[in-house]
Amino acid sequence: MITEYQQQLRERYLAAAVVAAPEPWRPVLDRETPIGGLLGIGFAVHPDSGHDLVMVVSSDGHGLFDAVTGEKIARDRDPDPDTSTPDAAPDLTCPGLGPIEGARVHIAGLFGGGLHRTAPDGWTLDVVSPEWPHDRVILSAYGGAPYKGPAGGAWWHVFHSQYSELRATGFSPSGRTLAVATSSDLTLWTRPEFDFED
């Protein structure tokens, strides 16, 4: 039995259409990047450019994407079976590749773990499921509660997982990248650098 308040929340989420993330966020690519058998993702930083990187672990190997341009910068189709999935390590990490070879990357997804749900300047992500198992990703501005006001004011329904299972969603540690990973694709948004002390 749900309360009247919970029913109102459910109806609010059901009524909210998927919309573009607000400024300063912009999509990295025009659509999702298809990745069959996606198991999880993690973040790293490019040692030369300083760009956020997204490492993808899938049933077809490992990939590394530049989170600003969307470019795939490294691929390993045949990773070592002893370290190819994060559950092989107690801290849910996989070995890096390409420019982050030699580093370990924390992976969130099917095997557990998590990404940052709040950016340093207060942007917040929530996952709601008013029609379970179809998850919705809600982006809130600067700590605004997604439970108050209409969609498009202080919160936005930016992703709806209708066809694939949600694996992980969150911000990079820098707060400049927002990622949503499902069992079949990766969606990224980026924004310019910011000074969160302002």
Oligomer: single chain
Cα(first) to Cα(last) distance is 45 Å
| Count of alpha and pi helical runs | 1
Helix content: under 10%
What is the compact description of this entry?
By secondary structure, the protein is mostly beta strands. Helix content is 6%, strand content 39%.
Walk me through what this model shows:
- There is one protein chain.
- With 198 residues, the protein is mainly beta.
- It is built from one helix and 15 strands.
- The strands form four sheets. Strands 1, 2, 13, 14 and 15 form a five-stranded antiparallel sheet that branches. A five-stranded antiparallel sheet has the order 6-5-4-3-9, with no helix packed on it.
- A hairpin with a 5-residue loop joins strand 5 (61-66) and strand 6 (72-76).
- It starts with a helix and ends in an 8-residue tail after the last strand.
- 36% of the residues are buried.
Features:
6% helix; mainly beta; 198 residues; five-stranded antiparallel beta sheet; 1 helix
What is this structure's SSE topology?
Elements: H1 4-15, E1 26-27, E2 33-34, E3 38-45, E4 52-58, E5 61-66, E6 72-76, E7 93-95, E8 104-106, E9 108-109, E10 124-131, E11 134-140, E12 155-161, E13 166-171, E14 177-182, E15 185-190
Antiparallel strand pairs: 1-15, 2-15, 3-4, 3-9, 4-5, 5-6, 7-8, 10-11, 11-12, 13-14, 14-15
